[in-house]
Design goal:
single chain; alpha/beta; 14 strands; 43% helix; globular; binds pyridoxal-5'-phosphate
């Protein structure tokens, strides 16, 4: 697979290089120069194969030039160890449950696949890789978990102090071993800026082998396309194009869906569901992309004011607003609407949904309402387990929910974090003195 930088099409790298570097030297994101179509026979047999086999076939289609089939099988088998089942709410509304991994959010897919890939590429090197991750909550724990005790890899997590839930903070700060958590006095956008600045800093990159594991890393993104194929195959009238509603923050998940479509998945429409951080929704309305600082909401993993993957979406469609608008619809919802959504989904379908998923269902409903037709089945990506947002969900739905064991186990452990300011020089000093 050849990839280019979204800042400069003439910059070309291999998949291996893109995974290790994370971000191009010019600050651009790596983008596949080609997303080859899967054979028609693959789409036809989707009904009969399960997620791990789908994952293998899709990754083989993309990476066969660089990773031998047997090694790829091994990576996929060790990364995708849990399912992505589809729950049916009614005849044309489904929930794609992406929370069955170890940290109960969809980011487990990307993080685990990336961890196994990076381990594979680094297997003959004696230089340690330092992974920098800015997280608004779920990315960090998924990455930390994916890389936990991985040979030759250390992870430095940056999260905004006081802006993640208590459960998320416990997940981020209690692993120890090769995982360090930095508590940044600032916002998620500050965390992301610190990480981006570190990558473009020559002194740092000459001394330390830095890599990223954010949704900007292409190895995080590709495996997220697997479950779109799986979801399509599990709808009851499968064969017809479907609608995907994707609760979006940094737009990695949505971009992975666009990749799946480019490889041949029949999709009628993508819906980008956003909260008050609606920069993308405004873009779809007006054609103008105007980033602004993020604000806090109940669906905090979507509190992003300048989504990185916007650059990839633009690159995929040749910067053409008309094409993007045709492909992607977008709606934004307030916290009040989100809570009401949780409550209504519970009373109407008996389904307990988390705040992010609630925004996704609201967006799908609005789409159906605006079109006045439900010709195509709609699938909402449920990005996290409701127990991760226990207080909000219990409050909104008036019920009690149980915390799954794999989440409960971190609650009693000691928090270990280092507080730093949002100043780049302080972060840089920390890295130089620690690694
Ligand atoms: C990360 C995250 C999102 C946003 O995903 P993007 O790929 O950044 O758009 C939505 N919901 C949850 C629960 C998340 O953890």
């Amino acid at each position: 697979m050849i990839l280019y930088s979204t800042n400069d099409k003439s910059v070309k790298v291999s998949f291996r290089e893109a995974v290790i570097k994370g971000l191009a030297d010019d600050g651009g994101l790596f983008m596949p120069s080609e997303l080859p179509a899967l054979p028609g026979s693959f789409i036809e047999k989707l009904n009969n194969i399960r997620l791990p086999e789908i994952a293998y076939e899709v990754s083989y289609n993309l990476l066969k030039d660089e990773i031998p089939a047997q090694d790829l099988r091994d990576i996929v088998e060790r990364a995708i160890t849990f399912d992505a089942p589809l729950a049916k709410l009614d005849e044309d509304k489904y929930i794609l449950e992406l929370f069955h991994g170890p940290t109960l959010a969809f980011k487990d897919f990307g993080a685990r696949f990336m961890a196994k890939t990076l381990e594979y590429f680094n297997r003959n090197s004696d230089k340690e890789v330092i992974i920098l991750v800015a997280t608004s909550g779920d990315t960090g724990s998924a990455v930390a978990n994916g890389f936990y005790k991985t040979e030759g890899v250390k992870v430095v997590l940056l999260y905004p102090s006081g802006k993640v839930s208590r459960i998320q903070e416990q997940q981020l700060t209690t692993l120890g071993e090769n995982i360090t958590a930095l508590e940044v006095e600032g916002t998620f956008d500050d965390c992301q800026r610190l990480v981006k600045s570190a990558f473009s800093n020559e002194q740092l990159s000459s001394r330390i082998k830095l890599s990223s594991a954010n949704s900007i890393n292409i190895a995080r993104l590709l495996p997220q396309s697997f479950y779109y194929f799986n979801a399509f195959a599990r709808t009851s009238d499968s064969g017809e194009p479907v609608i995907f509603s994707v609760p979006s923050g940094n737009f990695g998940n949505l971009t992975a869906g666009l990749f799946a479509e480019a490889m041949g998945l029949p999709v009628e429409k993508f819906i980008a569901a956003t909260n008050a951080n609606d920069v993308f929704t405004q873009y779809i309305r007006t054609g103008k992309y105007i980033p602004r600082p993020s604000v806090r909401t109940l669906s905090n993993a979507m509190d992003v004011g300048d989504p990185s993957n916007f650059a990839r979406i633009q690159a995929l469609y040749g910067n053409d607003y008309g094409t993007i608008k045709k492909k992607i619809e977008s709606y934004s919802f307030s916290d009040e609407e989100t809570k009401k959504g949780i409550s209504e989904i519970q009373s109407k379908y008996g389904y307990i949904i988390d705040p992010h998923g609630s925004v996704g269902v609201l967006a799908l409903d609005k789409y159906f309402e605006e079109r006045g037709t439900k010709e195509n089945a709609g699938i909402v990506l449920e990005t996290a387990h409701p127990a991760k947002f226990k207080d909000i969900v219990e409050d909104a739905a008036g019920i009690r929910i149980e915390i799954p064991e794999r989440l409960a186990s971190c609650m009693g452990r000691q928090k270990q974090s280092k507080i730093i300011s949002n100043n780049f020089d302080e972060f840089k000093e920390y890295l130089l003195s620690s690694y």
